[in-house]
Every structure is written in structure tokens, then in C-alpha cells.
Recover the amino acids of this structure.
């Protein structure tokens, strides 16, 4: 069973569209994260939720909005997609906030045409 | 701002040789973690070393941490072709938020 799963794996869409990426973890973890990895493999935290509470909200355009319906799910909605949003987006989870290893999904490769 | 700097950016060795990757960081940390990323896949946690630890082993992996120099190294002994991947260090600052700051990674190629 996949521990952290993201859908879709690939997302190709036009500039200006709105899209969502879903993430689910079956590890029973309390904390979930969204990261963005650019073309140079630089990985940067975007958001984190602990038991459905937002605890990390980095300097990210407000076109990006995370939603956590329960502690096993963390979705990412992106409005008005721009060329610069092209990247791989990773979801991750950890048992608790802070000082823990994180478990990553396999990523969603977003390409903006 | 980016916390970790990794060195070298790329490393190519023969199977059976050892591979050493270095990571430097800028601020105080609670722990430092190493991750592996195979092409097209997510990151996989390898090892976590706390700020009060100096060395840690896991199988063929050996990690050292020098908090006075704000640096860490990852040694992979007796490398295998399957070790070919990108390796990232990540620092967990004393914020208890889970915020990891990643280095830019070392791309390791192990030739059979």
C-alpha cells in the first residue's frame, strides 16, 4: 500500500486555468506538507497542516490555497495558473510537527502551456 | 533563504567505491536529515541526526555532524549501481513546525 499518494501524477494545462492536486496518507500521521521542486531540483516548503490546522504558510502567491478536510488529506488548489508555476509538487507527512522524518509522495509534475 | 549548501553538486564513481557528500548550513538546528531521490520519484528519508549527536550509522550509510562548523557529511560505503540518485540534506530548525530547509542536492552516479 502506498503510504503517501498524490493525484494526478502529471498535469498539463493552459495558463489561466484553475487546478487541484490531491494528497492522502495512510500512515496515521498528524502533519502534512506541500513542497515545490523547481527545474534545478531545489525543494521549498509551501504549507503545512497539523491536525487540520495551518502551521506553516510560506511566502507563496495567494493563488495557492491548501485545504485539509481531515488529517489524512491535504489538497492544493491553484488559481489562474502562470508559466512560473511549472514544477513538481510534493506532498509529505510526518508523525507529528517538528523533529521527525518526513514521508514523501511521488510528486505531481505540473506543466503550464 | 536557502539553508543548506551541498558539495559536490555531482559525483560519479565506480561500483564498490565509497561516496562522500557534504552539507553546510547557516543557523542553529534541532536535527539534520538526509534524503535520497531517485529519478522521477519522491524523497526517501535515510537518516536523522540530532544536534547533540556526532555520528550515526545505518547499514552502509554513515553520517557525521559538526555543529561548531555547521556541517554534515554522508558517506555511502561499497556503493552499488542502485545507489544512483540525488541526495539532499535538510535542516530542521528549532521551531517545532516541521519546516525543513533543503540543500540543492548532490547527484550521485554509480557506474557498474
Amino acid at each position: 500500500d502506498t503510504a503517501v499518494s498524490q493525484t494526478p501524477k502529471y498535469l498539463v494545462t493552459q495558463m489561466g486555468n484553475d487546478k487541484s492536486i490531491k494528497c492522502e496518507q495512510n500512515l496515521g500521521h498528524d502533519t502534512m506538507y506541500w513542497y515545490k521542486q523547481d527545474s534545478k531540483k531545489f525543494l521549498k516548503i509551501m504549507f503545512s497542516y497539523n491536525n487540520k490546522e495551518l502551521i506553516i504558510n510560506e511566502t507563496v502567491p495567494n493563488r495557492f490555497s491548501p485545504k485539509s478536510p481531515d488529517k489524512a488529506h491535504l489538497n492544493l488548489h491553484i488559481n489562474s495558473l502562470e508559466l512560473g508555476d511549472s514544477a513538481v509538487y510534493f506532498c509529505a507527512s510526518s508523525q507529528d510537527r517538528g523533529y521527525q522524518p518526513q514521508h514523501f509522495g511521488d510528486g505531481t509534475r505540473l506543466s503550464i502551456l | 533563504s536557502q539553508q543548506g549548501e551541498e558539495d559536490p553538486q555531482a559525483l560519479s564513481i565506480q561500483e564498490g567505491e565509497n561516496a562522500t557528500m557534504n552539507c553546510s548550513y547557516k543557523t542553529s538546528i534541532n536535527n539534520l536529515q538526509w534524503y535520497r531521490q531517485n529519478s522521477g520519484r519522491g524523497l526517501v528519508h535515510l537518516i536523522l541526526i540530532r544536534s547533540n549527536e556526532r555520528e550515526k550509522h545505518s547499514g552502509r550509510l554513515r553520517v557525521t555532524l559538526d555543529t561548531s562548523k555547521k556541517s554534515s557529511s554522508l558517506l555511502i560505503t561499497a556503493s552499488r549501481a542502485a545507489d544512483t540518485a540525488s541526495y539532499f540534506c535538510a535542516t530542521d530548525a528549532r521551531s517545532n513546525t516541521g519546516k525543513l530547509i533543503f540543500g540543492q542536492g548532490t547527484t550521485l552516479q554509480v557506474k557498474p
Chain B touches chain A through 26 residues (CB under 8 Å). The radius of gyration of chain B is 13 Å.
